[in-house]
Amino acid sequence: MVSIKIMYATSWCGDCKRSKKFLDENNISYKIVDIDEDDEGRKIIMELNKGKAKVPTIVFVDDTILVEPSNKELAEKLRIKWK
């Protein structure tokens, strides 16, 4: 199974909350960085997303990235059986 290295998010983002809930419900461990509170995290996602602060930006241990993924995309990437 592919695992998550880090999720860049904000506390107010609906997609971030949905992704976090999905990961928690599926017992997927991850480190979360709130880009509103972490300048280095904001800088990293700006570089990853060509100057845009798109969240959630999820970096996997294989160094692939999903930006604003749906639950279906997360399930496929993590090889989780999903509805």
Description of the structure:
The protein contains three helices and four strands; from the N terminus they run βαβαββα. By secondary structure, the chain is of the alpha+beta class. It has a single domain (4-78), classed as Glutaredoxin (3-Layer(aba) Sandwich). The chain has a four-stranded mixed sheet with strand order 2-1-3-4, covered by helices on one side. A hairpin with a 4-residue loop joins strand 3 (57-60) and strand 4 (65-67). The longest helix is centred in the first third of the chain and has 12 residues, at 14-25. The protein starts with a strand and ends in a 5-residue tail after the last helix. The mean pLDDT is 95.
Keywords:
83 residues; Glutaredoxin; single chain; globular; alpha+beta; four-stranded mixed sheet
| Unreliable runs | none
CATH fold description? Glutaredoxin
What structural category arises from helix and sheet content? alpha+beta
So, the CATH homologous superfamily? Glutaredoxin
Quaternary structure annotation: single chain
Please give the share of residues in helix.
25-40%
CATH class: Alpha Beta
Strand content: 15-25%
Let me know the number of strands.
4
Write the layout of secondary structure elements.
Elements: E1 4-9, H1 14-25, E2 32-34, H2 39-48, E3 57-60, E4 65-67, H3 71-78
Parallel strand pairs: 1-2
Antiparallel strand pairs: 1-3, 3-4
